[in-house]
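Support reply, case 0932

Customer input (verbatim):
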Amino acid sequence: MTAQHRHKAILDALHRDGRVEVPQLARLLDISPITIRRDLDQLAAAGALRRVRGGAVTTALRGEGLPFDVRAVDAASNKARLAEAVAGLIADGEAVAIDSGTTGAATAAALAHRRITAMPFSVQGIAALAGSPSVTLILPGGSVRAPEGTIVGPLAERTLAGLRFDTAVLTCCAATPDAGVTAYDLADAAVKQAIRAAAQRTVLIAEGAKFTRSAMAVICRLDEIDILVTDASAPAGVLAGLTEAGVRVVVC
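Our regenerated output:
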C-alpha cells in the first residue's frame, strides 16, 4: 500500500471516529506501528491532524475542511481523471471561469494546452495557465486567502458581475440532494455563487465522497447545475435522481 493510500485511510478513520490509535491503524492497514507513527507525523506536519500519546485526533471542527496541501495528494489521480473529463466538455474558443480548490487547479492544468479564455479563482489555477501560449488568461480582482490560494471578496464578486462566460467549472466541499451544493467558507461560497451566475452553463466536479459530507454555506440546489462530473463511488440513487431532473451526469 502506498503512502498516499495509507494517508487517505488514516484520514477517513479520523473523520469517522475523531481519534485514531496506532495499534488500531496497524491492524486496519496491516503494516507496522513504526510506519503508522511516521505517517501520523507527516500528516501532523501538514496540519491534517494533531498527534497525541498513542495516536492522533482531528484538528477540524465541524464545518471545516482539510488543508489544501493534504487534499492535493488525496486521490490525486482521481482528481486528474475528473479534470480531463471536464476539459473534454469544453470547446476551443470558450470563455471559462474556473473555481478554486484542488480539483479546480487540476482542471486548469488540464486546460493549459487548449485555445480558451480563462479566469481562474485560485493562485494555483493561475499558475497552471500563466505560461500557456494558447490560453488568454484574465485575472480576477479580490483577496487571496492563504493557505488555500482561493481568490475571494467583493472585488472578485464585482469582477464576475460585469462578465459573461460560456462555462463555469464549479467545485464544492459537499453536495447532497437535501442541502444542495455547499462550501465550508462563506466568502468562498459567495464567489462560487457569482461564478455560477456569470455563466451560461455550470459544470460541477464532485468526487463520490463529496456526497457523504455536509457544509454550512449553500451555493445552489444540486439540480440547478447543468452537468455533473463525478466518479464511480457516487451514490447511484443520487445520480439517477439528477438524470431524471435533467442534469447531465458524467461518471469517469
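We compared this against your earlier run and they match. Two observations from our side: The first helix runs from residue 3 to 17. The domain at 3-59 is CATH 1.10.10.10 (Arc Repressor Mutant, subunit A). Please reopen the case if you see a mismatch on your end.
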